[in-house]
Amino acid sequence: MGSGIMARAFVQAYRQALANASKNGVAQEAVQNIRRGSKMMTEAEARQILGVTENATWEEILQKYDNLFERNAKNGTFYLQSKVHRAKECLETIHQPKEQSTS
């Protein structure tokens, strides 16, 4: 019974800490620091994984992504599927702002 009370108190304190952090913008800063600290995929690596050139359009990148993702879903590994997904995410951050600014 005492452990149940402790668990509920911990959960409540954690929720309050998250609420306070989001009010102060600490949560966003922490997420950015984690992303910077982890090994980010480079654009060159992402292009190599997907097999696209620097001149490839976003539609070509999505087509390659869909093809590779589906192939690895059937016969590949979760690791390869994850690499393909991370490559698309990396190129998405590069291509999406360009398309939004031209619209």
Q: Give the helix/strand class.
A: mainly alpha
Q: What's the number of helices?
A: 5
Strand content: under 5%
Low-confidence stretches: none
Outline type: elongated
Order of helices and strands: HHHHH
Largest sheet: none
* Strand segment count: 0
Give the CA-CA distance, first to last residue: 60 Å
Q: Helix amount, in percent?
A: over 70%
User: Over all CA atoms, what is the radius of gyration?
Assistant: 20 Å
Mean pLDDT: 79
What is shown here, in short?
With 103 residues, this protein is mainly alpha-helical. The protein has five helices and no strands.
Explain how this protein is built.
The protein is mainly α and 103 residues long. 83% of the residues lie in helices and 0% in strands. Helix 3 (43-50) packs across helix 5 (78-102). The radius of gyration is 20 Å and the shape is elongated.
Q: What key phrases describe this protein's structure?
A:
103 residues, mainly alpha, 0% strand
Blueprint (SSEs and pairs):
Layout: H1 2-24, H2 26-37, H3 43-50, H4 58-75, H5 78-102
